[in-house]
Amino acid sequence: MKLKQLEGLLGSLEQFSHPKIELEQYPTGAHIASRMLFSAENSFGDISNKVVADFGCGCGTLGLAAALLGAEHVIGVDVDAESLEVASTNAEDLELDMEFVQCDVRNFGGRGQFIDTVVMNPPFGTRRKGADMDFLAVALKVASQAVYSLHKTSTRDYVKRTVMRDYNASSAEVICELRYDVPKLYKFHKKKEVDIEVDLWRFVPK
Amino acid sequence: MKLLTHNMLSSNIKGVTNGFPLGIEAEKVIERSVDMNPDFLKNMFSKIEWKPLVEASRIMGYSDLPEDVPDSSVLDSEEFLRKFHHALLEIHLEEGALVCPQTGRKFPVNKGIPNMLLHEDEV
């Protein structure tokens, strides 16, 4: 599948109708999601024929992108029932197979070495400090091959240091810098739209 | 929920040391056929916990899998791969519950989605 085609399909997905700020629900845009999964597949071979988990899947964008690129089994994990409903409708609309588990990612109980690749757009931790790092710790425990994740560029050194020292990563690499458009979703947003700089990371567990 | 997912999930309640495998209470089971991918199955074979898969598929009404862990030479058999494929990927628990093997706590499954949320005192 071509990048443009992937981006087009992801652009058609339904997103949060009533986003919950306490969960930092922001849609993962089709532009970012398509590039993230496209490089995971085409540069590293981490998607097709693999077991892929999407942590904090929300409306399912990343997981469905993995399914579109040939992942054999995709599991979306999210704490929010409403999001999972939207995600499962999205899967049906695209006629894709995706499994869902309602669970707080921090308490996710999965056997190790079972999931090949974790993809995620975690909460950046602006509401609950360290939320993104909590996700990362669990992801690096359950993935056997790679973890793809987005983190604010401003936290780059911290992320690198922490995963190498505390989360059992054998490598941590920024694949590219992206701009994350945050549309005006919540009342406290004053500007119409803001861009924040984010890094797309690839982590390899030990 | 497919049995492939069941074979990975465990109960993560505080204090539970062995939360795998989860028991299954099946109220509604459905089947959906999907294309078979032999390479994927061969790769999954070494990761699967065999006994829990046999037990889970039996509860879901499918008892064609061999009871004991087969030798990996069975992977050359098309017939075996079909059965393995069916059990792992085509049988879905649509309504029912998953049960923590240590505490008996039930995790409901609705519309195929297991609810593994923990109560405050279980975290």
Automatic annotation (TrEMBL), chain A:
What PROSITE patterns has UniProt attached to this entry? N6_MTASE (PS00092)
Q: Which Pfam families match?
A: MTS (PF05175)
SUPFAM superfamilies reported for this sequence = S-adenosyl-L-methionine-dependent methyltransferases
Q: Name one GO molecular function term.
A: nucleic acid binding
Domain named Methyltransferase small is located at 48-129
Record carries keyword Chaperone: no
Q: What keywords sit in the KW lines?
A: Methyltransferase, Transferase
Q: Which domain of life is it from?
A: Eukaryota
What family name appears in the similarity comment? Answer: Belongs to the methyltransferase superfamily. PrmA family.
What is the protein name for this chain? Methyltransferase-like protein 5
UniProtKB/TrEMBL annotation, chain B:
Protein name per the record: Multifunctional methyltransferase subunit TRM112-like protein
GO terms, biological process: rRNA (guanine-N7)-methylation; tRNA methylation
Q: Which PANTHER family does the record associate with it?
A: MULTIFUNCTIONAL METHYLTRANSFERASE SUBUNIT TRM112-LIKE PROTEIN (PTHR12773:SF0), UPF0315 PROTEIN-RELATED (PTHR12773)
One Pfam annotation reads: Trm112p
Query: How is the subunit organization of this protein annotated in UniProt?
Result: Interacts with TRM9.
Superkingdom of the source?
A: Eukaryota
**What GO molecular function annotations does the UniProt record carry, in alphabetical order?**
methyltransferase activity; protein heterodimerization activity
Keywords assigned by UniProt, alphabetized: Methyltransferase, Transferase
Give the transmembrane region(s): none
- Write out the similarity annotation: Belongs to the TRM112 family.
